[in-house]
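Memo to structure team: turn this sequence into C-alpha coordinates by end of day. - J.P.
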Amino acid sequence: MRYNQKVLNYLLIIIALWTGIVWGSYLWNSTQEKIYINSLAKKDAVANFNKDQAFRFWATQHGGVYVQADHKTPPNPNLSHIPERDVITPSGKVLTLMNPAYMIRQMMDDFPNEYGVKGRIVSDKFFWKPNAPDAWEANAIQEFKRGSKEKFEFTMKNNKPYLRLMRPMITEKKCLKCHAIQGYKEGDVRGGVGVMVLMTPYLEELNNVRLGLMVTHAIIYATGLLLMLLGGRSFNRYWVQLEEEQAKVQASHVELELKVQERTRELREANKQLQELDRLKSMFVASMSHELRTPLNSIIGFTGVILQGMSGPLTEKQTDHLQRVKSAGQHLLSLVSDVIDISKIEAGRAEANIELFSLRTLIEEAKGEVAVVATPKELTIEIEMDNEVQMETDRRRVYQCLLNYLSNAIKFTDKSGTIRIRVEECDSNVNISVMDEGIGIAKEEQSKLFEAFERLETHLRVNPGGTGLGLYLTRKITEDLLKGNVWMSSEVGKGSTFGLSIPKKITLKQLERGKLLWQEH
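Reply from structure team:
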Protein backbone atom coordinates (compact mmCIF):
# COMPACT_ATOMS: atom_id res chain seq x y z
CA MET A 1 0.00 0.00 0.00
CA ARG A 2 1.32 3.39 -1.00
CA TYR A 3 1.49 5.83 1.89
CA ASN A 4 0.21 9.37 1.74
CA GLN A 5 3.20 11.72 2.04
CA LYS A 6 1.85 13.51 5.14
CA VAL A 7 1.05 10.21 6.86
CA LEU A 8 4.50 8.89 5.94
CA ASN A 9 6.12 12.01 7.41
CA TYR A 10 4.13 11.65 10.64
CA LEU A 11 5.01 7.94 10.83
CA LEU A 12 8.72 8.62 10.35
CA ILE A 13 8.62 11.30 13.07
CA ILE A 14 6.88 8.90 15.49
CA ILE A 15 9.39 6.12 14.68
CA ALA A 16 12.26 8.56 15.26
CA LEU A 17 10.75 9.60 18.60
CA TRP A 18 10.21 5.96 19.57
CA THR A 19 13.81 5.13 18.65
CA GLY A 20 15.05 8.03 20.76
CA ILE A 21 12.87 7.01 23.72
CA VAL A 22 13.96 3.34 23.67
CA TRP A 23 17.64 4.21 23.10
CA GLY A 24 17.49 6.85 25.83
CA SER A 25 15.88 4.31 28.20
CA TYR A 26 18.65 1.81 27.47
CA LEU A 27 21.38 4.40 28.06
CA TRP A 28 19.76 5.61 31.26
CA ASN A 29 19.29 2.10 32.67
CA SER A 30 22.81 1.11 31.59
CA THR A 31 24.23 4.19 33.34
CA GLN A 32 22.25 3.45 36.48
CA GLU A 33 23.54 -0.13 36.49
CA LYS A 34 27.12 1.13 36.13
CA ILE A 35 26.60 3.49 39.04
CA TYR A 36 25.14 0.62 41.08
CA ILE A 37 28.03 -1.77 40.23
CA ASN A 38 30.58 0.92 41.08
CA SER A 39 28.83 1.56 44.38
CA LEU A 40 29.03 -2.18 45.18
CA ALA A 41 32.76 -2.17 44.43
CA LYS A 42 33.24 0.86 46.64
CA LYS A 43 31.29 -0.80 49.46
CA ASP A 44 33.55 -3.86 49.19
CA ALA A 45 36.60 -1.58 49.23
CA VAL A 46 35.32 0.19 52.36
CA ALA A 47 34.55 -3.15 54.02
CA ASN A 48 38.09 -4.42 53.37
CA PHE A 49 39.55 -1.10 54.48
CA ASN A 50 37.59 -1.29 57.73
CA LYS A 51 38.81 -4.86 58.26
CA ASP A 52 42.46 -3.76 57.85
CA GLN A 53 41.87 -0.77 60.09
CA ALA A 54 40.32 -2.94 62.79
CA PHE A 55 43.34 -5.26 62.65
CA ARG A 56 45.75 -2.30 62.83
CA PHE A 57 43.86 -0.72 65.76
CA TRP A 58 43.93 -4.04 67.62
CA ALA A 59 47.68 -4.32 67.13
CA THR A 60 48.18 -0.69 68.17
CA GLN A 61 46.23 -1.21 71.39
CA HIS A 62 48.64 -4.06 72.27
CA GLY A 63 51.77 -2.08 71.37
CA GLY A 64 52.60 -4.50 68.60
CA VAL A 65 53.07 -8.29 68.64
CA TYR A 66 56.18 -10.43 69.29
CA VAL A 67 56.79 -13.18 66.73
CA GLN A 68 59.63 -15.63 66.20
CA ALA A 69 62.35 -13.98 64.15
CA ASP A 70 63.25 -15.75 60.92
CA HIS A 71 64.32 -14.97 57.39
CA LYS A 72 60.78 -13.90 56.50
CA THR A 73 60.35 -11.75 59.58
CA PRO A 74 63.76 -10.45 60.59
CA PRO A 75 64.13 -7.82 63.34
CA ASN A 76 62.98 -4.43 62.03
CA PRO A 77 66.00 -2.09 61.94
CA ASN A 78 63.64 0.88 62.08
CA LEU A 79 62.63 -0.22 65.60
CA SER A 80 66.18 -0.52 66.93
CA HIS A 81 65.56 2.47 69.21
CA ILE A 82 63.08 0.40 71.21
CA PRO A 83 64.91 -1.31 74.13
CA GLU A 84 62.88 -4.49 73.97
CA ARG A 85 62.61 -4.87 70.23
CA ASP A 86 64.04 -8.41 70.57
CA VAL A 87 63.50 -10.82 73.45
CA ILE A 88 64.68 -14.42 74.12
CA THR A 89 62.29 -16.91 75.61
CA PRO A 90 63.39 -19.26 78.43
CA SER A 91 63.60 -21.98 75.80
CA GLY A 92 66.03 -19.91 73.78
CA LYS A 93 63.74 -18.72 70.96
CA VAL A 94 64.40 -15.22 69.62
CA LEU A 95 61.26 -13.10 69.35
CA THR A 96 61.13 -9.75 67.56
CA LEU A 97 58.55 -6.95 67.85
CA MET A 98 56.24 -6.37 64.87
CA ASN A 99 54.59 -2.96 64.92
CA PRO A 100 51.04 -2.61 63.39
CA ALA A 101 52.29 -1.17 60.10
CA TYR A 102 54.78 -4.07 59.74
CA MET A 103 52.00 -6.57 60.43
CA ILE A 104 49.56 -4.97 57.96
CA ARG A 105 52.24 -4.78 55.26
CA GLN A 106 53.18 -8.44 55.70
CA MET A 107 49.53 -9.52 55.64
CA MET A 108 48.95 -7.52 52.44
CA ASP A 109 52.08 -9.00 50.86
CA ASP A 110 51.30 -12.58 51.86
CA PHE A 111 47.59 -12.63 50.95
CA PRO A 112 47.10 -10.20 48.03
CA ASN A 113 44.77 -12.36 45.99
CA GLU A 114 42.64 -14.06 48.65
CA TYR A 115 39.65 -11.74 48.17
CA GLY A 116 40.62 -9.83 45.03
CA VAL A 117 41.57 -6.88 47.21
CA LYS A 118 45.07 -5.49 47.72
CA GLY A 119 46.02 -3.30 50.67
CA ARG A 120 48.68 -0.67 50.89
CA ILE A 121 50.17 1.66 53.53
CA VAL A 122 52.13 4.69 52.33
CA SER A 123 53.74 7.71 53.95
CA ASP A 124 55.64 10.79 52.87
CA LYS A 125 58.11 9.91 55.73
CA PHE A 126 58.70 6.24 55.18
CA PHE A 127 61.00 3.78 56.95
CA TRP A 128 60.68 1.19 54.21
CA LYS A 129 61.13 2.15 50.56
CA PRO A 130 58.11 0.13 49.25
CA ASN A 131 55.99 2.40 51.51
CA ALA A 132 56.90 5.38 49.31
CA PRO A 133 53.73 6.83 47.71
CA ASP A 134 53.17 7.10 43.96
CA ALA A 135 51.97 10.37 42.43
CA TRP A 136 48.24 9.72 43.10
CA GLU A 137 48.94 8.61 46.70
CA ALA A 138 51.24 11.59 47.35
CA ASN A 139 48.49 13.95 46.16
CA ALA A 140 45.98 12.13 48.39
CA ILE A 141 48.23 12.55 51.46
CA GLN A 142 48.47 16.29 50.82
CA GLU A 143 44.69 16.52 50.57
CA PHE A 144 44.37 14.57 53.85
CA LYS A 145 46.62 17.13 55.53
CA ARG A 146 44.25 19.87 54.26
CA GLY A 147 41.29 18.12 55.89
CA SER A 148 40.05 15.65 53.23
CA LYS A 149 38.73 12.37 54.63
CA GLU A 150 38.76 10.11 51.58
CA LYS A 151 40.00 9.79 48.02
CA PHE A 152 39.18 7.16 45.39
CA GLU A 153 39.47 6.59 41.66
CA PHE A 154 38.89 3.99 38.93
CA THR A 155 42.15 3.23 37.18
CA MET A 156 44.09 0.66 35.17
CA LYS A 157 47.11 -1.13 36.60
CA ASN A 158 49.01 -3.94 34.88
CA ASN A 159 46.28 -3.83 32.20
CA LYS A 160 43.60 -4.61 34.79
CA PRO A 161 40.84 -2.33 36.06
CA TYR A 162 40.94 -1.37 39.74
CA LEU A 163 39.09 0.81 42.22
CA ARG A 164 41.57 2.58 44.50
CA LEU A 165 40.37 3.85 47.88
CA MET A 166 42.54 5.66 50.42
CA ARG A 167 41.85 7.28 53.78
CA PRO A 168 44.23 9.17 56.11
CA MET A 169 46.34 7.40 58.74
CA ILE A 170 46.22 9.57 61.89
CA THR A 171 48.97 9.40 64.55
CA GLU A 172 47.63 8.21 67.89
CA LYS A 173 49.34 8.27 71.25
CA LYS A 174 50.22 4.57 71.07
CA CYS A 175 51.74 5.10 67.62
CA LEU A 176 54.43 7.36 69.10
CA LYS A 177 56.20 4.33 70.58
CA CYS A 178 57.51 3.55 67.09
CA HIS A 179 57.06 6.77 65.17
CA ALA A 180 57.98 9.54 67.59
CA ILE A 181 61.50 9.24 66.23
CA GLN A 182 60.19 10.54 62.89
CA GLY A 183 58.98 13.76 64.52
CA TYR A 184 55.25 12.93 64.53
CA LYS A 185 52.89 14.25 67.17
CA GLU A 186 49.52 12.92 68.23
CA GLY A 187 46.88 13.87 65.60
CA ASP A 188 49.34 14.26 62.71
CA VAL A 189 48.64 12.68 59.32
CA ARG A 190 51.37 10.03 58.92
CA GLY A 191 50.22 8.90 55.51
CA GLY A 192 47.40 6.89 54.08
CA VAL A 193 45.93 3.42 54.19
CA GLY A 194 44.40 2.21 50.99
CA VAL A 195 42.91 -0.76 49.19
CA MET A 196 42.68 -1.70 45.51
CA VAL A 197 39.62 -3.69 44.43
CA LEU A 198 39.90 -5.65 41.17
CA MET A 199 36.95 -4.50 39.01
CA THR A 200 36.99 -7.43 36.57
CA PRO A 201 34.16 -9.46 38.23
CA TYR A 202 32.07 -6.33 38.67
CA LEU A 203 32.50 -5.34 35.02
CA GLU A 204 31.57 -8.85 33.93
CA GLU A 205 28.37 -8.55 35.95
CA LEU A 206 27.75 -5.13 34.40
CA ASN A 207 28.18 -6.57 30.89
CA ASN A 208 25.71 -9.35 31.69
CA VAL A 209 23.17 -6.81 32.93
CA ARG A 210 23.71 -4.60 29.87
CA LEU A 211 23.20 -7.60 27.59
CA GLY A 212 19.87 -8.29 29.33
CA LEU A 213 18.88 -4.64 28.99
CA MET A 214 19.79 -4.67 25.33
CA VAL A 215 17.68 -7.76 24.62
CA THR A 216 14.74 -6.40 26.61
CA HIS A 217 14.85 -3.02 24.90
CA ALA A 218 15.23 -4.64 21.49
CA ILE A 219 12.05 -6.67 22.07
CA ILE A 220 10.18 -3.56 23.30
CA TYR A 221 11.46 -1.52 20.34
CA ALA A 222 10.49 -4.17 17.79
CA THR A 223 7.03 -4.57 19.33
CA GLY A 224 6.43 -0.83 19.32
CA LEU A 225 7.73 -0.53 15.76
CA LEU A 226 5.37 -3.28 14.58
CA LEU A 227 2.40 -1.60 16.28
CA MET A 228 3.34 1.73 14.69
CA LEU A 229 3.52 0.22 11.22
CA LEU A 230 0.14 -1.49 11.67
CA GLY A 231 -1.34 1.70 13.10
CA GLY A 232 0.22 3.70 10.27
CA ARG A 233 -1.51 1.50 7.67
CA SER A 234 -4.88 1.98 9.38
CA PHE A 235 -4.32 5.71 9.77
CA ASN A 236 -3.27 5.98 6.13
CA ARG A 237 -6.55 4.40 5.02
CA TYR A 238 -8.44 6.79 7.28
CA TRP A 239 -6.44 9.75 5.92
CA VAL A 240 -7.20 8.81 2.30
CA GLN A 241 -10.92 8.58 3.13
CA LEU A 242 -10.70 11.90 4.94
CA GLU A 243 -9.10 13.59 1.93
CA GLU A 244 -11.82 12.20 -0.30
CA GLU A 245 -14.47 13.55 2.07
CA GLN A 246 -12.67 16.90 2.23
CA ALA A 247 -12.68 17.04 -1.55
CA LYS A 248 -16.43 16.47 -1.52
CA VAL A 249 -16.86 19.11 1.19
CA GLN A 250 -14.71 21.53 -0.83
CA ALA A 251 -16.86 20.95 -3.88
CA SER A 252 -19.98 21.51 -1.77
CA HIS A 253 -18.36 24.62 -0.30
CA VAL A 254 -17.72 26.04 -3.78
CA GLU A 255 -21.31 25.29 -4.74
CA LEU A 256 -22.56 26.84 -1.49
CA GLU A 257 -20.34 29.89 -2.06
CA LEU A 258 -21.92 30.41 -5.45
CA LYS A 259 -25.38 30.13 -3.89
CA VAL A 260 -24.38 32.56 -1.13
CA GLN A 261 -23.12 35.03 -3.69
CA GLU A 262 -26.39 34.74 -5.57
CA ARG A 263 -28.41 35.18 -2.37
CA THR A 264 -26.20 38.09 -1.36
CA ARG A 265 -26.88 39.77 -4.67
CA GLU A 266 -30.61 39.22 -4.17
CA LEU A 267 -30.36 40.60 -0.61
CA ARG A 268 -28.55 43.69 -1.90
CA GLU A 269 -31.34 44.25 -4.36
CA ALA A 270 -33.93 43.71 -1.63
CA ASN A 271 -32.00 46.04 0.67
CA LYS A 272 -32.00 48.75 -1.97
CA GLN A 273 -35.75 48.35 -2.27
CA LEU A 274 -36.13 48.52 1.53
CA GLN A 275 -33.96 51.63 1.67
CA GLU A 276 -36.16 53.18 -0.99
CA LEU A 277 -39.25 52.18 0.98
CA ASP A 278 -37.67 53.63 4.14
CA ARG A 279 -36.97 56.87 2.26
CA LEU A 280 -40.57 56.98 1.06
CA LYS A 281 -41.77 56.24 4.59
CA SER A 282 -39.68 59.08 5.96
CA MET A 283 -41.04 61.38 3.27
CA PHE A 284 -44.56 60.22 4.16
CA VAL A 285 -43.98 60.81 7.90
CA ALA A 286 -42.53 64.25 7.24
CA SER A 287 -45.43 65.08 4.96
CA MET A 288 -48.02 63.74 7.38
CA SER A 289 -46.33 65.65 10.18
CA HIS A 290 -47.16 68.87 8.38
CA GLU A 291 -50.40 67.80 6.73
CA LEU A 292 -51.92 66.40 9.94
CA ARG A 293 -50.56 68.79 12.54
CA THR A 294 -51.62 71.95 10.72
CA PRO A 295 -55.36 71.08 10.41
CA LEU A 296 -55.37 69.45 13.87
CA ASN A 297 -53.93 72.58 15.46
CA SER A 298 -56.56 74.61 13.59
CA ILE A 299 -59.37 72.33 14.78
CA ILE A 300 -58.14 72.44 18.38
CA GLY A 301 -57.55 76.22 18.21
CA PHE A 302 -60.92 77.15 16.67
CA THR A 303 -62.72 74.72 18.97
CA GLY A 304 -61.12 76.45 21.94
CA VAL A 305 -62.18 79.86 20.58
CA ILE A 306 -65.76 78.69 20.19
CA LEU A 307 -65.79 77.14 23.66
CA GLN A 308 -64.62 80.47 25.11
CA GLY A 309 -67.81 82.03 23.68
CA MET A 310 -66.05 84.38 21.28
CA SER A 311 -68.42 83.36 18.47
CA GLY A 312 -71.56 83.61 20.53
CA PRO A 313 -73.28 81.70 23.32
CA LEU A 314 -73.48 77.90 23.15
CA THR A 315 -76.03 75.49 24.44
CA GLU A 316 -75.04 72.87 26.97
CA LYS A 317 -75.25 70.17 24.30
CA GLN A 318 -73.10 72.16 21.85
CA THR A 319 -70.47 72.74 24.57
CA ASP A 320 -70.34 69.03 25.35
CA HIS A 321 -69.95 68.15 21.66
CA LEU A 322 -67.18 70.70 21.12
CA GLN A 323 -65.37 69.51 24.27
CA ARG A 324 -65.42 66.02 22.75
CA VAL A 325 -64.07 67.33 19.44
CA LYS A 326 -61.24 69.20 21.19
CA SER A 327 -60.33 66.17 23.35
CA ALA A 328 -60.31 63.86 20.30
CA GLY A 329 -58.18 66.38 18.37
CA GLN A 330 -55.64 66.64 21.19
CA HIS A 331 -55.51 62.84 21.46
CA LEU A 332 -54.94 62.52 17.71
CA LEU A 333 -52.25 65.25 17.77
CA SER A 334 -50.50 63.44 20.65
CA LEU A 335 -50.66 60.17 18.70
CA VAL A 336 -49.22 61.80 15.57
CA SER A 337 -46.39 63.40 17.56
CA ASP A 338 -45.51 60.09 19.24
CA VAL A 339 -45.52 58.20 15.92
CA ILE A 340 -43.26 60.82 14.34
CA ASP A 341 -40.85 60.74 17.30
CA ILE A 342 -40.67 56.93 17.23
CA SER A 343 -40.15 56.93 13.48
CA LYS A 344 -37.22 59.32 13.77
CA ILE A 345 -35.61 57.36 16.60
CA GLU A 346 -35.97 54.02 14.83
CA ALA A 347 -34.57 55.50 11.64
CA GLY A 348 -31.55 56.83 13.55
CA ARG A 349 -32.37 60.40 12.54
CA ALA A 350 -33.27 61.72 15.98
CA GLU A 351 -30.41 63.65 17.56
CA ALA A 352 -29.83 64.54 21.19
CA ASN A 353 -29.67 68.25 22.00
CA ILE A 354 -27.15 68.32 24.86
CA GLU A 355 -27.34 71.15 27.40
CA LEU A 356 -26.47 71.77 31.04
CA PHE A 357 -29.46 72.03 33.40
CA SER A 358 -30.64 71.47 36.96
CA LEU A 359 -32.54 68.22 37.44
CA ARG A 360 -34.55 69.64 40.36
CA THR A 361 -35.75 72.56 38.23
CA LEU A 362 -36.84 70.13 35.49
CA ILE A 363 -38.76 67.98 38.00
CA GLU A 364 -40.48 71.03 39.46
CA GLU A 365 -41.60 72.03 35.94
CA ALA A 366 -42.99 68.55 35.24
CA LYS A 367 -44.74 68.55 38.61
CA GLY A 368 -46.33 71.92 37.82
CA GLU A 369 -47.53 70.76 34.39
CA VAL A 370 -49.35 67.67 35.70
CA ALA A 371 -50.73 69.45 38.76
CA VAL A 372 -53.80 70.54 36.79
CA VAL A 373 -54.66 66.84 36.32
CA ALA A 374 -53.56 65.63 39.75
CA THR A 375 -55.35 68.25 41.82
CA PRO A 376 -58.94 67.26 40.86
CA LYS A 377 -58.08 63.65 41.88
CA GLU A 378 -56.71 64.89 45.26
CA LEU A 379 -53.24 63.49 44.45
CA THR A 380 -50.12 64.87 46.12
CA ILE A 381 -46.82 64.86 44.24
CA GLU A 382 -43.69 64.73 46.43
CA ILE A 383 -40.02 65.02 45.38
CA GLU A 384 -37.40 62.97 47.23
CA MET A 385 -34.01 64.38 46.27
CA ASP A 386 -31.11 64.82 48.70
CA ASN A 387 -28.61 66.76 46.59
CA GLU A 388 -28.74 69.18 43.72
CA VAL A 389 -27.87 67.31 40.50
CA GLN A 390 -26.52 69.02 37.41
CA MET A 391 -27.20 67.13 34.17
CA GLU A 392 -25.55 67.52 30.78
CA THR A 393 -27.83 65.68 28.39
CA ASP A 394 -30.98 66.24 26.30
CA ARG A 395 -33.21 68.23 28.67
CA ARG A 396 -36.34 68.03 26.53
CA ARG A 397 -36.12 64.24 26.24
CA VAL A 398 -35.60 63.76 29.98
CA TYR A 399 -38.61 66.02 30.59
CA GLN A 400 -40.67 64.02 28.06
CA CYS A 401 -39.86 60.69 29.77
CA LEU A 402 -40.62 62.03 33.25
CA LEU A 403 -43.88 63.54 32.02
CA ASN A 404 -44.94 60.17 30.54
CA TYR A 405 -44.27 58.42 33.86
CA LEU A 406 -46.17 61.08 35.84
CA SER A 407 -49.13 61.03 33.44
CA ASN A 408 -49.42 57.23 33.78
CA ALA A 409 -49.11 57.42 37.59
CA ILE A 410 -51.96 59.95 37.77
CA LYS A 411 -54.05 58.07 35.19
CA PHE A 412 -53.90 54.74 37.06
CA THR A 413 -54.50 56.15 40.54
CA ASP A 414 -58.19 56.52 41.37
CA LYS A 415 -58.50 59.28 44.00
CA SER A 416 -56.32 60.66 46.80
CA GLY A 417 -52.91 59.28 47.60
CA THR A 418 -49.31 60.32 46.98
CA ILE A 419 -47.06 60.13 43.94
CA ARG A 420 -43.34 60.25 44.75
CA ILE A 421 -40.52 61.27 42.44
CA ARG A 422 -37.27 59.84 43.83
CA VAL A 423 -33.78 60.78 42.58
CA GLU A 424 -30.69 58.71 43.48
CA GLU A 425 -27.12 59.19 42.30
CA CYS A 426 -25.11 56.06 41.45
CA ASP A 427 -21.55 56.82 40.31
CA SER A 428 -21.89 58.58 36.96
CA ASN A 429 -25.60 57.71 36.57
CA VAL A 430 -28.82 59.14 37.95
CA ASN A 431 -31.81 56.93 38.81
CA ILE A 432 -35.19 58.67 38.50
CA SER A 433 -38.22 56.69 39.69
CA VAL A 434 -41.93 57.58 39.87
CA MET A 435 -43.91 55.66 42.54
CA ASP A 436 -47.69 55.67 42.77
CA GLU A 437 -50.29 54.07 45.04
CA GLY A 438 -52.57 53.08 42.20
CA ILE A 439 -54.17 49.88 41.02
CA GLY A 440 -50.90 48.07 40.19
CA ILE A 441 -50.21 45.78 37.27
CA ALA A 442 -50.49 41.98 37.11
CA LYS A 443 -47.24 40.08 36.52
CA GLU A 444 -48.45 38.54 33.27
CA GLU A 445 -48.99 42.02 31.80
CA GLN A 446 -45.76 43.66 33.01
CA SER A 447 -43.56 42.23 30.24
CA LYS A 448 -45.67 43.98 27.56
CA LEU A 449 -45.72 47.46 29.09
CA PHE A 450 -42.77 48.93 27.19
CA GLU A 451 -43.93 47.60 23.80
CA ALA A 452 -45.73 49.69 21.16
CA PHE A 453 -49.52 50.09 21.31
CA GLU A 454 -49.87 48.14 24.57
CA ARG A 455 -52.56 49.57 26.84
CA LEU A 456 -54.05 48.30 30.12
CA GLU A 457 -57.81 48.03 30.30
CA THR A 458 -59.05 48.83 33.82
CA HIS A 459 -62.17 49.97 35.61
CA LEU A 460 -60.67 53.50 35.72
CA ARG A 461 -60.89 54.02 31.98
CA VAL A 462 -64.17 55.44 30.75
CA ASN A 463 -62.67 56.76 27.54
CA PRO A 464 -59.50 55.53 25.77
CA GLY A 465 -56.84 57.19 27.87
CA GLY A 466 -53.59 57.37 25.99
CA THR A 467 -52.01 56.35 22.70
CA GLY A 468 -50.38 53.11 23.84
CA LEU A 469 -47.03 54.57 22.74
CA GLY A 470 -45.98 56.51 25.86
CA LEU A 471 -43.95 53.82 27.60
CA TYR A 472 -42.57 52.47 24.32
CA LEU A 473 -41.44 55.98 23.36
CA THR A 474 -39.95 56.46 26.84
CA ARG A 475 -37.90 53.27 26.44
CA LYS A 476 -36.68 54.21 22.95
CA ILE A 477 -35.69 57.74 24.08
CA THR A 478 -33.91 56.44 27.19
CA GLU A 479 -31.98 53.68 25.43
CA ASP A 480 -31.24 55.26 22.03
CA LEU A 481 -30.85 58.96 22.86
CA LEU A 482 -30.08 59.18 26.59
CA LYS A 483 -27.90 55.99 26.62
CA GLY A 484 -29.63 54.54 29.69
CA ASN A 485 -32.27 51.94 30.52
CA VAL A 486 -35.79 51.71 31.92
CA TRP A 487 -37.28 49.42 34.55
CA MET A 488 -40.46 48.89 36.55
CA SER A 489 -41.96 46.93 39.45
CA SER A 490 -45.58 46.61 40.49
CA GLU A 491 -47.98 44.77 42.77
CA VAL A 492 -51.70 44.58 42.16
CA GLY A 493 -53.61 46.82 44.54
CA LYS A 494 -50.50 48.44 46.01
CA GLY A 495 -49.10 50.57 43.23
CA SER A 496 -46.31 50.67 40.69
CA THR A 497 -42.83 52.10 40.31
CA PHE A 498 -41.43 53.14 36.93
CA GLY A 499 -37.83 54.25 36.64
CA LEU A 500 -35.05 55.14 34.31
CA SER A 501 -31.29 55.19 34.80
CA ILE A 502 -29.31 57.61 32.62
CA PRO A 503 -25.79 59.09 32.61
CA LYS A 504 -25.48 62.53 34.18
CA LYS A 505 -23.34 63.52 31.23
CA ILE A 506 -23.44 62.28 27.63
CA THR A 507 -20.25 62.65 25.61
CA LEU A 508 -19.97 63.10 21.87
CA LYS A 509 -18.18 59.74 21.68
CA GLN A 510 -21.23 58.00 23.13
CA LEU A 511 -23.50 59.64 20.59
CA GLU A 512 -21.20 58.81 17.66
CA ARG A 513 -20.84 55.22 18.84
CA GLY A 514 -24.63 54.93 19.04
CA LYS A 515 -24.97 56.16 15.44
CA LEU A 516 -22.35 53.67 14.22
CA LEU A 517 -24.09 50.78 15.97
CA TRP A 518 -27.41 51.79 14.41
CA GLN A 519 -25.82 52.05 10.94
CA GLU A 520 -24.20 48.59 11.31
CA HIS A 521 -27.52 47.17 12.43
